């Protein structure tokens, strides 16, 4: 008996991208395109060619992200709407930040970041409670809180962007130019990467461990903000006024975020292993993800981080070439970027040779985070060089 | 890599095998990372004297021999780098044949037994003729973009499919890209200079002499294919050379053109922080029909004749400064002087000659100030200039004087910073400004104190007024003694401050009396100083001093008390200036840059291909069974993304089953075996 030709095609022909999209995808795409078209129509005259192409290129990027990872659609929409709401509340007057309720307590950049901070702490507690109690409800709540924290964090950055122009159009700049801003970026990126893997592997049990590193970053952020007034918006020094900066820094932080995630899955790996050896029927041994899965997430995160760190380092070199006349000067920051990169290259090769066990690789991924941390913070604190913007 | 260990291999083969081995690569990556740390911990290319002070002569020499002051040009460091590149190249060369084979071979002749042992297999008994199964399989593979090759066996047919060869391209792009980056870097490296130094034809200059006097062996011709150096050009001047720093010296690089800096500008934000640095340049070149005029700024260099000119920094270019020298010692003359930064001037003093070396001028001094509310704000303290005053013995003290009075605690002061060496912290002299915002009253008061006649006059007035109301009134001898001691104490105070008076007392009186004497003397001194101050005010026409006048008096005494430590016979006040700035340009020629960028693009693409594309293979082993039935053995493998491939393989099996046996009721499908179990997707919620 034979099957009609079209059935076979239905089964095998890989549905094209367009066929795989459902109504929700289409609606979302329409909103994104409309939003970007609106932004282009209203502001293109205020932007130069670089900025225009950035805006236009962001359309396919956001669309692709949304199709590849559906949860990000809602996220993008939420951040866009809340940011617009915050901007609308300002009504073109920076002083409103102190008087309008919605700004003072919710959406001025500083309040939004405070919400993000509090929510990350809360989410950490929920994830650990979920791990111990095994309650699916608590675990799902933890995920929801994390999403909310991420919405507030990115909204805070977006509103801050607007605020910088509001204070003085000459100050205006994308908020990736000082340590305070990039720490928020770090929290957001690490959180998003984690949620991606959580969704992909359908496993929430390691959330608490990953959120530990985010909470630590939030702790630093709060200290930095209260003790050093780091949240103040200051104008850019001339060296930072470069297009390279705008892509170099985010690319770098995808790298840092991924490396941090890998270190935390490495930590979970070691915890799980310890639990398996000492109490195989205990909570941790039963509930934490399998060793193979943890190892795999570590690998994927380091691969992602390595790829983006490669791009970031190259962009950094191009920026250096334009700002200081040399693409490589062995400046401490550059050199430490190279050290981080070499370290993960070694990690990746070692994994290929399968010479070392998962335990060693897990320890190494934690060591890698320490090296990364030094490159990111330590260099600014202890070594002098051309990258002086992040002084503590 | 798959070769068996063989001790008969010749040395060359063994060496290449070692050099291309993965353990060596990993070791080199780690060693290079560790070596790189050194140069970040130890600040590089500082003056050698600094290192010697820091480490002592013994360690200084050892570190110097190891090249630790310029690690990244040290031979051993370059050797590690070279090793890594050689190792990577050999690795590529050795792996390429195997990879090409991987890409070309479909392995369509795979044996049934070996297919059954693969990680992903499943076997179906289908109620369909073999030709139909094959056709379906082909279609399934083509729909996924696999390339397929068929093979006719003795009792079966095999379809072998594969996809994702780009993964191997990823390997080549990554590793060859790396080698290219290194070669590009080599083009721009200092290697030719180092070789020149070894051969003795190049010798860095270490003396501080005019560029025109630098000897030939420290000069590089304009044709030099790669260089990177800098030069400071004052506004209105030009240069056709740049300086390349080499360890503790420099080389002079000639340029194929002349750069003139017409003007240099710093734009500021409303807060006073700098917003942009820019220079208006004119390029003079005989190849140009007319000079090329352009403006560069930070992040916006000029590219001309294969070189690039960057705005790197800025500094003073010899500003003209008008000064008033106000004597702090009575015997010194008051004078006016106009001079330029970087020039030296001889000053004739009373007892010795001094040399004034003007070293810097700054138009803005933005300093953080903590306000009453505890907030730090940036405040502009206005223009300042820095100079050294060198005495006949050659000892110099550095001063930084601000032109305008600065408000401290709501009162205005002229500020002068002092230090003996750049390593010391600055200490400050605060001279109070009078109600007209000038130093006039302070120097008037000081002059009166230093003038014996005025001092006596004031002391007499006060003493007589005081004596008249006491029992001693009319006793001339006592009065004279009092006046004498007032004058004497005042002199001590002026020459050595309050500290000097205390020292004088402890030297002359037994310890048990010191406290009483100090109290008494202080009273007398205060009376004398006050009387001179009142006299000063009278001469200015002030009859009844206000609180602010007494505040001024206290501030003046503080300043005068510090004068003995100030070390300069004059207070040099800036009265006017004509700023001339110098633009710091970095000029480079780097032919390797585009090579490096090209390699970087290869590297980036390669890394993504390596990580995100997997090389997948699927085999269909199709064996006819009696009754027009078919046994289909399905096997697959992937070199990464196992989990995704497992999911794909399961889906493929399901699809085949669905198409080839659409109706379960037939009972035509039998699962023979599936080895999938051991890598089932885990849903460990
Ligand atoms: C700075 C130097 C190097 C860098 C940055 C680098 C980078 C990489 C990266 C990112 C991968 C992919 C790893 C993965 O898929 O997990 C890789 C794979 C590989 N590298 Fe390197 N590599 C370097 C040097 C070397 C050297 C010296 C060798 C020679 C032994 C080598 C041999 C390999 C091999 C055989 C693979 C596997 C390719 C495959 O899976 O098809 N690499 N390299």
Compile the SSE list and pairings.
The complex is a heterodimer of chains A (392) and B (685).
Chain A: H1 5-12, H2 17-20, H3 23-43, H4 49-68, H5 71-90, H6 96-99, H7 101-107, H8 109-133, H9 136-167, H10 179-201, H11 207-228, H12 243-278, H13 283-287, H14 291-324, H15 332-353, H16 358-382
Helix pairs in contact in A: 3-4, 4-5, 5-9, 7-8, 8-9, 8-11, 9-10, 10-11, 10-12, 11-12, 12-14, 12-16, 14-15, 14-16, 15-16
Chain B: H1 11-19, H2 22-41, H3 48-65, H4 75-104, H5 112-116, E1 120-126, H6 130-143, E2 147-152, E3 157-163, H7 166-187, H8 191-199, E4 219-220, E5 227-234, E6 238-246, E7 249-268, E8 274-284, E9 292-297, E10 302-304, E11 307-316, E12 320-327, E13 335-340, E14 344-348, E15 353-362, E16 366-370, E17 376-380, E18 384-390, E19 396-402, E20 406-408, E21 411-419, E22 427-432, H9 440-450, H10 452-468, H11 476-508, H12 511-540, H13 547-566, E23 570-578, E24 581-589, H14 592-612, E25 616-625, E26 629-638, H15 642-660, E27 670-674
Parallel strand pairs in B: 4-7
Antiparallel strand pairs in B: 1-26, 1-27, 2-3, 3-25, 5-24, 6-7, 7-8, 8-9, 10-11, 11-24, 12-13, 12-23, 14-15, 15-18, 16-17, 18-19, 19-21, 20-21, 21-22, 25-26
Helix pairs in contact in B: 2-4, 4-7, 6-15, 7-14, 9-12, 10-11, 10-12, 11-12, 11-13
The structure holds protoporphyrin IX containing FE.
Protoporphyrin IX containing FE (HEM) sits between chains B (20-22, 25, 29, 84, 87-88, 91, 95, 171, 174-175, 178, 607, 610-611) and A (303, 306, 345, 348-349, 352).
Structure description:
- The complex is a heterodimer of chains A (392) and B (685).
- Chain A is mainly alpha-helical and 392 residues long.
- Chain A has 2 domains: 1-68, no CATH class; 75-390, no CATH class.
- Chain A is 79% helix and 0% strand.
- Chain A has 16 helices and no strands.
- The longest helix of chain A has 36 residues, at 243-278.
- Chain A starts with a helix and ends in a 10-residue tail after the last helix.
- The model of chain A is unreliable at 1-6 and 385-392 (pLDDT under 50).
- With 685 residues, chain B is an alpha+beta fold.
- Chain B has 4 domains: 2-101, no CATH class; 106-164 and 614-682, Sirohaem synthase, central domain (Double Stranded RNA Binding Domain, 2-Layer Sandwich), CATH 3.30.160; 191-317 and 581-590, no CATH class; 443-574, no CATH class.
- Chain B is 41% helix and 30% strand.
- Chain B contains 15 helices and 27 strands.
- In chain B, the strands form 6 sheets. In chain B, strands 14, 15, 18, 19, 20, 21 and 22 form a 7-stranded antiparallel sheet that branches. Chain B has a 6-stranded antiparallel sheet with strand order 2-3-25-26-1-27. In chain B, strands 4, 6, 7, 8 and 9 form a 5-stranded mixed sheet that branches.
- Residues 663-685 of chain B have low confidence and may be disordered.
- Chains A and B meet through helix 1, helix 14 and helix 15 of A and helix 2, helix 6, strand 8, strand 11 and strand 24 of B.
- The complex binds protoporphyrin IX containing FE.
- Protoporphyrin IX containing FE sits between chains B (20-22, 25, 29, 84, 87-88, 91, 95, 171, 174-175, 178, 607, 610-611) and A (303, 306, 345, 348-349, 352).
């Amino acid at each position: 008996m034979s099957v009609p030709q079209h059935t076979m095609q239905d089964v095998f022909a890989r549905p094209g991208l367009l066929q795989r999209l459902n109504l929700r995808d289409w609606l979302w795409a329409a909103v994104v395109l409309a939003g970007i078209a609106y932004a282009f129509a209203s502001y293109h005259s205020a932007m130069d060619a670089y900025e225009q192409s950035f805006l236009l290129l962001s359309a396919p990027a956001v669309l692709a992200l949304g199709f590849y990872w559906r949860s990000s659609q809602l996220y993008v929409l939420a951040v866009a709407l809340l940011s617009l709401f915050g901007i609308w509340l300002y009504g073109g007057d920076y002083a409103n930040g102190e008087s309008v309720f919605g700004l003072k307590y919710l959406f001025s950049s500083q309040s939004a970041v405070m919400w993000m901070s509090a929510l990350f702490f809360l989410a950490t507690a929920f994830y650990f409670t979920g791990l111990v109690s095994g309650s699916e409800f608590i675990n799902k709540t933890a995920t929801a809180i994390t999403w909310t924290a991420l919405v507030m964090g990115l909204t805070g950055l977006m509103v801050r962007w607007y605020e910088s122009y509001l204070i003085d159009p000459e100050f205006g700049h994308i908020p990736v130019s000082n340590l305070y801003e990039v720490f928020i970026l770090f929290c957001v990126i690490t959180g998003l990467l984690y949620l991606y893997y959580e969704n992909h592997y359908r496993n929430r049990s390691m959330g608490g461990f990953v959120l530990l590193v985010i909470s630590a970053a939030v702790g630093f952020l709060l200290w930095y903000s209260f003790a050093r007034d780091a949240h103040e918006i200051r104008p850019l020094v001339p060296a930072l006024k470069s297009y390279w900066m705008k892509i170099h820094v985010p690319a770098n932080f995808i790298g840092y975020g991924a490396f941090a995630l890998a270190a935390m899955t490495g930590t979970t790996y070691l915890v799980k292993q310890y639990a398996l050896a000492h109490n195989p029927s205990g909570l941790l041994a039963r509930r934490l993800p399998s060793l193979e899965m943890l190892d795999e997430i570590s690998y994927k995160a380091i691969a992602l981080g390595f790829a983006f760190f490669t791009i970031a380092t190259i962009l950094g070199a191009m920026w250096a070439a334009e700002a200081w006349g040399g693409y490589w000067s062995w400046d401490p920051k550059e050199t430490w970027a190279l050290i981080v990169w070499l370290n993960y290259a070694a990690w990746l090769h070692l994994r290929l040779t399968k010479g070392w066990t998962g335990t060693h690789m897990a320890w190494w991924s934690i060591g890698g985070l320490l090296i990364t941390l030094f490159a990111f913070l330590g260099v600014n604190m202890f070594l002098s060089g051309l990258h002086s913007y992040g002084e503590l | 890599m798959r070769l068996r260990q063989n001790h008969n291999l010749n040395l060359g083969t063994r060496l290449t095998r070692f050099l291309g081995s993965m353990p060596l690569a990993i070791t080199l990556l780690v060693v290079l990372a560790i070596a790189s740390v050194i140069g970040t911990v130890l600040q590089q290319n500082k003056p050698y004297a600094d290192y010697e002070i820091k480490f002592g002569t013994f360690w200084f020499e050892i570190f110097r021999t190891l090249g630790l002051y310029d690690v990244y040009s040290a031979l051993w460091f370059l050797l590690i780098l070279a090793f890594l590149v050689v190792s990577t190249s050999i690795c590529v060369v050795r792996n390429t044949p195997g990879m090409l084979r991987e890409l070309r071979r479909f392995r369509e002749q795979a044996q049934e037994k070996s297919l059954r042992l693969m990680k992903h297999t499943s076997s179906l008994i289908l109620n369909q003729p073999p030709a139909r199964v094959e056709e379906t399989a082909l279609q399934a593979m083509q729909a996924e973009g696999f390339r397929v090759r068929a093979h006719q066996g003795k009792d079966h047919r095999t379809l072998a499919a594969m996809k994702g060869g780009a993964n191997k391209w990823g390997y080549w792009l990554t590793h060859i890209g790396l080698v290219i980056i290194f070669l590009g870097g080599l083009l721009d490296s200092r290697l030719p200079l180092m070789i020149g130094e070894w051969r003795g034809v190049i010798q860095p200059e270490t003396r501080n002499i005019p560029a025109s006097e630098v000897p030939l062996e420290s000069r590089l011709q304009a044709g030099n294919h790669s260089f990177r150096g800098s030069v400071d050009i004052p506004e209105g001047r030009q240069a056709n050379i740049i300086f390349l720093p080499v360890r503790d010296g420099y080389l002079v690089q000639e340029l194929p053109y002349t750069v003139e800096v017409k003007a240099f500008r710093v734009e500021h934000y409303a807060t006073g922080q700098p917003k942009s640095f820019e220079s208006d340049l004119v390029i003079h070149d005989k190849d140009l029909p007319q000079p090329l005029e352009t403006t560069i700024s930070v992040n916006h260099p000029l590219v001309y004749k294969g070189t690039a000119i960057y705005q790197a920094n800025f500094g003073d270019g010899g500003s003209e400064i008008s000064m008033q020298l106000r004597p702090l010692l009575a015997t010194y003359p008051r004078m006016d002087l106009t001079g330029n930064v970087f020039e030296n001037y001889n000053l004739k003093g009373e007892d010795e000659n001094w040399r004034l070396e003007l070293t810097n001028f700054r138009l803005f001094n933005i300093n953080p100030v903590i306000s009453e509310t505890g907030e730090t704000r940036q405040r502009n303290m206005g223009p300042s200039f820095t100079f050294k005053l060198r005495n006949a013995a050659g000892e110099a003290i550095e001063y930084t004087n601000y032109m305008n009075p600065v408000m401290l605690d709501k009162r205005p002061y002229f500020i002068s910073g002092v230090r003996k060496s750049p390593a010391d912290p600055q200490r400050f002299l605060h001279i109070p400004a009078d109600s007209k915002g000038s130093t006039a009253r302070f120097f008037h008061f000081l002059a009166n104190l230093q003038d014996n006649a005025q001092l006596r006059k004031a002391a007499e007035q006060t003493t007589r007024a005081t004596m008249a109301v006491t029992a001693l009134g009319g006793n001339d001898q006592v009065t004279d003694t009092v006046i004498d001691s007032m004058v004497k104490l005042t002199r001590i105070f002026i020459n050595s401050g309050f500290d000097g008076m205390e020292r004088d007392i402890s030297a002359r009186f037994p310890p048990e009396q010191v406290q009483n004497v100090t109290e008494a003397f202080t009273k007398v001194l205060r009376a004398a100083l006050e009387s001179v101050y009142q006299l000063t005010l009278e001469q200015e026409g002030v009859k009844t001093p206000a609180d602010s006048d007494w505040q001024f008096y206290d501030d003046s005494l503080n300043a005068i008390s510090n004068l003995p430590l100030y070390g300069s016979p004059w207070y040099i006040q800036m009265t006017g200036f004509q700023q001339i700035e110098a633009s710091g340009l970095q000029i480079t020629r780097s032919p390797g840059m585009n090579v490096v960028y090209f390699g970087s693009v290869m590297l980036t693409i390669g890394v993504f291909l390596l990580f995100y594309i997997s090389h997948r293979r699927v085999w269909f082993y199709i064996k006819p069974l009696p009754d027009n039935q078919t046994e289909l053995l399905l096997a697959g493998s992937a070199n990464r993304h196992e989990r995704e491939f497992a999911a794909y393989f399961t889906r493929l099996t399901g699809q085949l089953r669905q198409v080839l046996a659409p109706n379960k009721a037939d009972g035509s499908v039998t699962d023979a075996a599936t080895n999938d179990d051991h890598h089932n997707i885990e849903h460990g919620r």
